[in-house]
Amino acid sequence: MGKKLFLNVLYNIVILVCLITGYEYGIAQKNYIYLIGAAAIIAIFIVLKVRLLKEVKKAQKSL
Fold first, then answer.
1. Which of 14, 17, 25, 49 could form a disulfide with 34 if both were Cys (CB 3.0 to 4.6 A apart)?
2. Which residues touch 14 (CB under 8 Å, ≥6 apart)?
3. What pTM value is reported for the model?
């Protein structure tokens, strides 16, 4: 369970960093390629986070 907690924290950090990067480099400096890249990475990590949360919820139900 500790590994899953670490993964959840890591996913949150990556999403936060991508949000900041997308805003600072994508919107503020008008480099929209950074915004597109950050949005793609955020989408991937949100999907991974949802899968992880479903897995944890399923494991808790079986106990």
1. 25
2. 41, 45
3. 0.89
Q: Are 49 and 22 in contact (CB under 8 A)?
A: no
Contact between residue 45 and residue 14 where contact means Cβ atoms under 8 Å apart: yes
pLDDT reading at 55 higher than 90: yes
Task: Give the residue from 49, 51, 19, 16 showing the smallest Cα distance to 37.
Answer: 19
* Integer CA distances (angstroms), 17 to 21, 39, 41, 55, 56, in order: 6, 11, 10, 25, 24
Distance CA 55, CA 28 (A): 37
